[in-house]
Structures are given as C-alpha cells and as structure tokens.
Amino acid sequence: MADIFFSFSFADTINQFVTWLVQDYGDSFHHITELLLSYLLVPLERGLIALPPALVLAGVAGLSYHATRRLGISALLVVALYLIGCLGLWDKLMQTLALMMVSTLLTVLLGVPLGIWMSRSKGLRLALAPVLDVMQTLPTFVYLIPVLMLFGLGKVPAIFATVIYALPPLVRLTDLGIRQVDGEVQEAACSFGTTYWQLLFGVQLPLARPSIMAGINQSVMMALAMVVIASMIGSRGLGEDVLAGINNMDMGKGMQAGIAIVILAIVIDRISQAYGQDGRMKAMRRRSKAATR
C-alpha cells in the first residue's frame, strides 16, 4: 500500500529553541527563581504556617461572612477547614495555599490587563484566541517539559506551569465582561467628560466585576487542579501526600489529602463566587427573604 504521509517533525526545532533559551538566558531564569522564592513564596509560606490556626479560622470566618452575609455557610466553611487540621494536614494546607496564592496573583497581574487590552483590540483578540485555545487544551504535562528545562525542579516551575494553565479563562472572561458593559451607560459617562482611565476604572471594570470574578474563580479552581501534578516536580503541600499515596499504594493517605484539596477548593469557590455576585442581586435576594418571613 502506498504511503500517503510525508515525513515531517518539528521536535528538533523546539529542542534547539529551548536549548538556546537555557544557554543564553539561563542566568536570567535563575534570578527570577531566586526573586520569587526569596521575596514572595517562602516568606508567605512561613508566615501562613507561623500564624495560629485559630487566627486563620477566624479570618476565614470573617471573610466568608463578609462575602456571603450568611452565618450558616461561614460556620460550615470554618468547620471544614478545622477538619483538615484534625487530619494533621494543617501545615501542608498552608503550603498549598501559599503556592496557590502566588500563582493566582501572577495570573491576575497578567490576565486582567491582557483581557482589558483584548476588549479594545479586535486584531489582538483574533490573534490571541487560538493561543488561548491551545493553552486550554494542551495536556498539562506538556507544560512541565519546557518549564523544567528553564527553571529546574522545585516550587517556581510549579508556579509557572500553574499560571500557564490557569490564565486563559481569566483573560477570556475579562475581555467578555468589559465588552458586555452597556453601551448607553458608557456613552452617558463619556457625555459627562470622563477620561479614558475614569471610564475604565469608574464604569467598565465595576460593571464587569461579576465576569472578572468568575474568571478569577475559574483560575483558582484550575490552579488547585494542578496541585497534584505540580508535586511531581518538587512542589510541597497536599499534592505531595497524594503523590506519596499513589507511589506507596497507600489509599488512605492519598484520599485524606485529596479530600483536603476538595475542601480548600469549596471554601475558595464559595467566597470568590459570593464576591463576584452583583450587589443588586444580593439586595434582591435579601428583600425576597425578608418578604417571605
């Protein structure tokens, strides 16, 4: 049977590109690693572990009540976190939380400005759309190969792999939220002589907040989904226990850490979703509850 396929491979080209990056810019990547570890991740991780657990639980209770205005949900979230401490996983929970907070911070710093830029440039949106599609559909292990070559083993490559994985939904939803702001509202604001920045920060971003918060929520959930995969390249935390459970066929240890990750995801999801809700929706819900009493 005649072979209809011609031989083609771009593996060598990619290998040569990554090798060139490592040889010419290896020192720069090393400095980035040192900066992130010395000034952000390690101090945050140590600070969270040093905090008394009761203070952390009280902080979560206050934050969740401020977001949801519901005592029952706030109490349930605190009890769920308390159970993680009862399992002896409190320090690992704080390590995971620190890794996730740094990853989310970098994702927001990159994703929100990029989403704003996309909402103002049709050409950029057309150019970035396929890139974001690839980032969302590419198997997560593929991210780890170049990141490992550039940054080596440890927590920093885990952060960058997580940022790449979690960035697309935030960019898309920021772009969508700003483009869906009512044109008449923007026109009315412009008629009062608002500047570009006043229109952005005073009108567009506040009205796009539910969509942006949904993007941040999705990014955080995707960052948590990377916890176990990131543990394979040296990041510490709850994912380390899941990986140890798989390697040692210790089902109980893996399940405990897995449930702790799920609880952390639920706590962050409930709080971030509540902050993303429109204030008018919250007021309508409170009025409807008051009317039914």
Quick tags:
0% strand, globular, 293 residues, mainly alpha
Question: Can I get a quick summary?
Answer:
With 293 residues, the protein is mostly helical.
Helix content percent band: over 70%
Measured distance between first and last alpha carbons: 78 Å
Strand count, sense and barrel status of the largest sheet are: none
What is the count of β-strands? 0
Task: Name the shape in a single word.
Answer: globular
Total of DSSP H or I helical runs spanning 4+ residues: 14
Query: What fraction of the residues are assigned to beta strands by DSSP?
Result: under 5%
Radius of gyration: 22 Å
Mean pLDDT: 84
Describe it for me?
It is a single chain. This protein is mainly alpha-helical and 293 residues long. Helix 10 packs antiparallel against helix 13. The longest helix has 40 residues. The termini are far apart. The mean pLDDT is 84.
